[in-house]
Design goal:
Order of helices and strands: EEEEEEEEEEEE
Number of helices: 0
Mean pLDDT: 79
Number of strands: 12
Number of domains: 1
Radius of gyration: 17 Å
Low-confidence stretches: 174-178
CATH superfamily: YVTN repeat-like/Quinoprotein amine dehydrogenase
Strand order of the largest sheet: 1-2-3-4
Length: 178
């Protein structure tokens, strides 16, 4: 593996760094990627764009919660732009930030999650939008949730009690996420 470009002078307090296309249309971002940096000590986040071995500042957001325990990016709205789900297991709330290029994020809050759940990753489940894999290590249950006007439970599985980590991906060359 070769280091393409080292980037320095970044905060040491970033809790999450998510990759995606949050502020540009998918078609306009063929040669770029954006990184969203989240700092839970200040409630700030920044978006920076990476292109041609350089990183440029795009935007700062302030006033975000300082208690989010997990974050994932994916196209949850089904519009080819990357959205963000931020989960707070102390309150059992998930915030879906829908990316709208040229406009602020649209924030939807979903409450009533189990506080013992751990947000894992985005998966493609079926032919529509991305869904979220949620694992509750206290019950060994794995759930797949879909977001629309409300959240919908698509599937629920009981896992072996001794498993403490679940990963998603394309295993065995199949064309779907497992």
């Amino acid at each position: 593996m070769n280091l393409i470009q080292p980037f320095q002078s970044l905060r040491q307090t970033w809790k999450f760094i998510l990759a995606g296309n949050f502020t540009t249309e998918e078609a306009d971002s063929q040669d770029t990627s954006e990184l969203l940096f989240y700092d839970d000590t200040t409630g700030e986040s920044e978006i920076r764009r990476i292109s041609d071995n350089s990183m440029s500042y795009v935007q700062t957001y302030t006033g975000w919660s300082t208690t989010w325990s997990a974050a994932i990016a994916g196209d949850f709205a089904g519009d080819s732009n990357d959205d963000i789900i931020l989960y707070d297991n102390s309150t059992g709330e998930a915030n879906l930030l829908i990316s709208r290029p040229g406009q602020p994020f649209l924030q939807l809050t979903y409450s009533g999650w189990r506080k013992s759940s751990r947000l894992l990753t985005a998966v493609q489940y079926g032919q529509t939008k991305r869904s979220v894999l949620v694992h509750d290590p206290t019950t060994s249950e794995l759930e797949i949730w879909h977001f629309s006007d409300s959240r919908q439970l698509l599937a629920q599985y009981k896992l072996r009690d001794s498993w403490d980590r679940v990963l998603s991906g394309r295993f065995g060359g199949l064309t779907r996420s497992e």
